[in-house]
Amino acid sequence: MDPISVSATALAFGNYSAAAQSTANNTVTISCGLLGIDLLPNFTVGLSAGRATVFSPRKMFFGTTNTLNYNIYTTPGFATIWGDGSSGTATQTFNSSLLSLGTINFTGYGRLPAGQFVAPGAYMDTLTVTVTF
Length: 133
Known about the structure:
The chain is mostly beta strands.
């Protein structure tokens, strides 16, 4: 198989205020190199639940006990959670009847709900991107 490259940008919400929801986007990029030509077969891209181990809600942590609920969705309407296809989540899919040239980008639409009164600090989570051919 040709070399596959997977990269993802951070989902950075910035400073959180409990008064209003926050949104942010990230990008997962998949590319495949073949002698200077990028060829991509059909594949799906899933995201893990992160440190919370459940998809709804995902949680960012500050220390071991402070949490901030968030999620990543497949569309800007925030209707479908981007996950691994289990627990009501969906994966992102690339389908082509022929091998396709280029690099494919998928956008994740993140949302932090309003009304979470949390201790100030740097909250974070780490997700695993899984590409299945």
